[in-house]
Specification:
It is built from 7 helices and no strands. By secondary structure, the protein is mainly α. The protein has a single domain, classed as Ferritin (Up-down Bundle), CATH 1.20.1260.10. The structure holds fe (ii) ion.
Length: 174
Amino acid sequence: MKDISAAAKLSALEVSGDVGDMPLLKTVAFLRVLSMVHQNHHWAAFSPTQMSDHLLFERLYNETQEEIDALGEKAFLYGESYMDESITFENIQDMWSLLVKTQMGKTVDSPNALVENSLVAELLFAEFLDGLVLGLQASGRMGDGKGRGLDKIIQDMQDTHEGHVYLLRQRLKG
Ligand SMILES: [Fe+2]
């Protein structure tokens, strides 16, 4: 089995160092990539013996997709808006590259490999969120009640993805 903890051991700062001046839209891009990863795994886990994995991945991508719209709207409220559509896709490409750089396998050749890949992606997202919080606090956009709802959205995201990590780890144990 892959060394998953090592795979996700990019420091939060290394991850968030890339976030630049559009941190929320970068986060939206990461959520999109994360949801695509889980949905690909949902489709790949199609055999009768993989039914519980099939449903687990469905839950993960649905919960992730629900976060995208709320955060995207918040991003625009904070003045992060793209007039250049191609930047959206560049961000998605950046986040995909980040996942692959952390040893998330490109080939998924076994049921466990699907679960491991989803777990690596979730662990990295958790690191990314830690870095995001530090960045937003440092720039005064979060904390001390300045977040105007952003604090709650991010806290909820942290809880949701902590839950995803737990479910995937339980599945690998079982
Ligand atoms: Fe489906």
